[in-house]
């Protein structure tokens, strides 16, 4: 899911490191987000089953990357 906003409005929440109790795979870089790492949880409002966990840098840089393509 390179462009979650393509699904419409998204709810974005930052998880603090103490809240990150599981590891996840970032959909942008396909690398692990380890336990205890602060990151973003991005949920398309109309399709909550597409919730994904993103590295902070991957989420913040997604607009810049899409403009370079």
Brief rundown of the structure:
The chain has 69 residues and is α+β, with helices and mostly antiparallel strands. The chain is built from 1 helix and 5 strands.
Structural write-up:
With 69 residues, this protein is an alpha+beta fold. It contains 1 helix and 5 strands; from the N terminus they run E-E-E-E-E-H. The strands form 2 sheets. A 3-stranded antiparallel beta sheet has the order 1-4-5. Strand 2 and strand 3 form a beta hairpin. It is globular. The model has no long low-confidence stretch (mean pLDDT 89).
What keywords describe this structure?
69 residues, two-stranded antiparallel ribbon, 5 strands, 19% helix, globular
List the helices and strands and how they pair.
Elements: E1 10-15, E2 24-25, E3 32-33, E4 39-44, E5 52-54, H1 56-68
Output the strand order for the largest sheet: 1-4-5
Instruction: Estimate the strand proportion.
Output: 25-35%
Instruction: Give the low-pLDDT segments.
Output: none
Number of strands: 5
Question: Which shape, going by the Cα principal axes?
Answer: globular
